[in-house]
Write a structure and sequence with these properties.
The protein is mainly beta. The chain has one domain: Porin (Beta Barrel). The protein has no helices and 10 strands. The strands form 2 sheets. Strands 1, 2, 3, 4, 5, 6, 7 and 8 form an 8-stranded antiparallel β-sheet that branches. Strands 9-10 form a two-stranded antiparallel sheet. Strand 3 and strand 4 form a beta hairpin.
Length: 157
Amino acid sequence: MRDSKISDPTGSGKVKLDTGFSTGLHLGYDFKAFRLEGELRYQESKVDKVSACAGGICVSDVPASGNFTVWSLLVNGYYGFLNESPVTPYLTAGIGVAKLDVDNLSVLKIRLGSADDVVFAYQVGAGIGLSLVEKTTLDVKYRYFATTDPDFKGIKA
């Protein structure tokens, strides 16, 4: 996950996240050049540092801790560029919802708590599918996943 900008009526800042992990379950149907699937995905990153400005006072890279998690449920469509080889390049796009959670957030060992929000989610991507056996394909893809801005107890992220 990428770092996140934050803001509320008193100021703004940035939350830096460590590299996390992502895993998902995909089930779909292949209509030849077009595929349709449902996707359930879990992503997690640790909060690393916070930078903020409020009332003319700014702090940078203050040590922080906590977990940032995302559960998403999307419907994805794929368009494959069919050819005679077992390798098929494709484009993909999807829409759905995501539940974003910030758990046990602490800055300078001061516990700020937890918050969550459910927001609209979308993704686009491209990849290559390698046909292994009939009805089984190994995919390698890049995807850009994003959501609308969540509201964590009055803090926009």
